[in-house]
Amino acid sequence: MEEQIIEINVNSLEEKYEFNKVAKQASGAVMYRQGKAVLIAAVAIDEKAVDEDFLPLTVQYMEKAYAAAKIPGGFIKRETKPGDFETLTSRIVDRSLRPLFPKGFYFPVTISIMVVSSDEEVDMQVAALHAANAALFISDIPFSTSIAAVRIGTVGDDIVVNPTLSQQADSELDLLVVGSGQDVVMIEMRTLASENESVQNANEFHEAALVDVIATAGEAIEKATSAYEEAFAPLVREPLALTLAEDKVDESLYTYIENNYAEDVEKAISHMAKSERSTELKKVRTKIMEALESAGKEADKDLVSKGLERYKKTVVRAMILDKNIRADGRALDEVRPISIETNLLPSVHGSCL
User: Fold this and answer.
1) How far, in Å, CA of 18 to CA of 183, rounded?
2) Where does the chain hold its CATH 1.10.10.400 domain(s)?
3) Where are the alpha helices (DSSP H) in 77-164?
4) Contact of 175 with 151, CB cutoff 8 Å
5) Is the distance from CB of 99 to CB of 12 less than 8 angstroms?
6) Which of 25, 119, 140, 180 is least surrounded by CB atoms within 10 angstroms?
């Protein structure tokens, strides 16, 4: 395999992707460059699927001191456990890529992203997302969708797409949007409290302005994903012959649950706590199985669980779209009661509950 270099300039980012240069035994790998920042992303897959109804995806984003030409100081000279930024970045990559895997894909996948050279002006979360996306897109894993990340900030009164880190420091907005084409996969925003004493807002931007900003991000994402897919398509490897798990939902069982236990399911998911909802749904499942057995019908626990889970999603979706009510009974703009009590412990520097 010959080394392939692709340069893409989109959304204020000048990116260089070097394929077939490193980690050649991985399912897919790339050396990603932006400014002085260099990241290596590699994807590996275990071709034996797990038995659980779950995608075992592991994302590791790693930063080392040498990437900034530093050596850990103090008594311990070795690198320690991952920091908060590394953990949060790993989660962001996971949350952005996980929904795009095909249904029934239960093969263990590991995505490793290592920063080998840093740049004080490069947004490493956007860089990590794009590096992981490129490695996964060209890999032999049957994954044919590209994502793009866009961070929105402000410089003065202007909205800026993908500001530098120094620009982000003075920005009134920190909004990260990840999507594919016209679909938004993930939104993450850091709130900046208003300093206006007369009017207190959770964020300097009002709702109407944020809607326009998200629309701007959506246009940038659509442009970027189109550019990535067009550039990476010739490098995609021959996909592995993987058998996806079948959806075992019994349509007749689903209809039976819908006709006979709609009220029970809606009552179960109206509980405030997630643990309470789970417990109540298990009671509904037991009730369904007992009714089927008493009627002389087959009551497979796995099939009943899948049918109940599918119907629960239908009910939750209908509650949100038709009744403007969330699963725990709250309105869309209603916040859970929050209470904070301080100075509980007399002998410590500070305590709260």
Assistant:
1) 27
2) 246-353
3) 84-97, 124-137
4) yes
5) no
6) 25
Angle at which helices 84-97 and 124-137 pack, to 10 degrees?
40
**What CATH architecture applies to the domain 246-353?**
Orthogonal Bundle (1.10)
Mind listing the pLDDT tens digit for each residue in 170-217?
888 889 999 999 999 999 987 665 555 555 455 556 777 778 888 899
Contact 216, 184 (CB under 8 A): no
DSSP H/E element including 294:
helix 274-294
Kindly report the pTM of this predicted structure: 0.81
Cα separation of 169 and 29, whole Å? 32
Annotate 101-124 with b (16+ C-beta within 10 A) or e (fewer). Answer: beeebbbebbbbbbbebbbeebbb
HSE value, Cβ hemisphere, 13 Å, CA-based, for 344 = 6
330: left (phi over 0), alpha (psi -120 to 50) or beta: beta
Task: Tell me how far apart the alpha carbons of residues 272 and 62 are, in angstroms, rounded to a whole number.
Answer: 37
Residue 188 — φ and ψ, nearest 5°? -135, 135
Distance CA 50, CA 1 (A): 32
Quick one: average pLDDT of 313-329? 87
Q: Given this model, what pLDDT does residue 92 score?
A: 96
Please state the CATH superfamily assignment of the domain spanning residues 4-71+80-148+217-235 in this structure: GHMP Kinase, N-terminal domain (3.30.230.70)
Q: Which residues of the chain are in CATH 3.30.230.70 domains?
A: 4-71+80-148+217-235
Report the SS3 class of residue 38: strand
- Mean pLDDT for the chain overall: 89
> Which residue, 126, 97, 127, is CA-closest to 110?
97
